[in-house]
Design brief:
By secondary structure, the protein is mainly alpha-helical. The chain has one domain. 77% of the residues lie in helices and 8% in strands. The chain is built from four helices and two strands.
């Protein structure tokens, strides 16, 4: 038996924006924690900035897989398109940092190296993500009716 279900325009728009919204929030929280950790840390506990700044990124890296997968097969193709490019950006930058992060971290030892690596991620991801959030808000979304099995 088939039933009709309505997906509202605001729901489709929010699904298109959610990956970018959380990515921006996590990267800004992580950068803020890094800077706050540097202000609070003395020379004896120099690992504090690293301990404060990395957990949000690591947790979001794992959780983002579920968010990405839940939106990837959305019935609205524009929603899936925004989600796909948000994932390309985030996973591309995080994967690149696995390769290039250690040499960059080694250039400036300690917290400055971490600031360089995390700052690079923020500078690459956040402006594009904010632009995509803006573009998704300006997109002409419409309600959709889909048939689902009951």
């Amino acid at each position: 038996m088939k039933a009709k279900r309505v997906i509202s325009a605001s729901s489709a728009r929010f699904a298109a924006q959610i990956f970018n919204i959380i990515t921006v929030a996590v990267l800004l929280i992580s950068m803020t924690a890094l800077l706050l950790g540097k202000l609070l840390a003395s020379h004896k506990i120099g690992f504090l900035p690293f301990v404060l700044s990395m957990p949000p990124v690591m947790i979001w890296l794992g959780a983002s897989i579920f968010v990405y997968a839940s939106v990837a097969h959305h019935p609205n193709p524009r929603t899936a398109h925004f989600n796909k490019w948000a994932g390309y950006r985030f996973y591309g930058v995080m994967g690149s940092l696995v390769v290039f992060g250690q040499p960059l971290y080694g250039l400036l030892d300690g917290w400055r190296g971490l600031m360089l690596v995390l700052g690079l991620a923020v500078l690459i991801v956040v402006p594009w993500a904010l632009y995509d959030i803006y573009r998704a808000a300006r997109e002409p979304w419409a309600d959709m009716t889909v048939e689902v099995d009951v």
